[in-house]
Amino acid sequence: MAVAREELQKDLEEVKELLTNATRKRVRDVLVAEKQKLELEIKNQPPPKPKDVAEEEKSSLGGYTVKINNYGWDQSDKFVKIYISLNGVQKLPAENVQVNFTERSFDLLVKNLNGKNYTMTFNNLLKPISVEGSSRKIKTDMVLVMCKKKREEKWDCLTQVEKESKEKEKAAYDTADPSEGLMNILKKMYAEGDDEMKRTINKAWVESREKQYKGDIPMDI
What we know:
By secondary structure, this protein is an alpha+beta fold. The protein has helices at 2-21, 25-44, 51-60, 160-173, 178-192, 195-214, and strands at residues 64-67, 72-75, 79-85, 97-102, 105-113, 116-122, 129-139, 142-149. The strands form 2 sheets. It has a 4-stranded mixed sheet with strand order 1-6-5-4, with no helix packed on it. It is elongated, with a radius of gyration of 32 Å.
């Protein structure tokens, strides 16, 4: 904004200089009109901020922004509560911890905590919340976001995306063939497990195959 004001001021000075040298009425009328236009634009520009205020605002933004991924949550009949751990957050001015709510979302912004900004956004909440009834509380090393339920009913998860993900997993396990469901579970455990888990599953697989060949297990798992 300061740059725009400075450029307008330079244009005005140049128009004034041209006006002093202009002799023809038509040219002078055009320059006078342009001079008045520039003066009005400059007048409508917001005043430049003092340097110390600008520096203070800059410092309040912190160094860089960190996305918060870790949190805990629970619920009561009336509220869904999200717990976000942030060391030293209670030392910040209250205005540095902001939460904006909509009926199906909220976003948290914590400014200038140890030189960083922290953000968290939840979109597509599982059920509607009351914007007016929702709030945040600052505790020792923690921010508590309280989403007021519009209806007093249990939430199985926080977002619609989580619900859909759980339903897909459940559908993968709920098969007509019990052995197929077990195979899906084992595959998931193997894919997500560490080396020890993989060795255990491999060992169990080998042993089950050996028993099957001996006739001890009629079902193929």
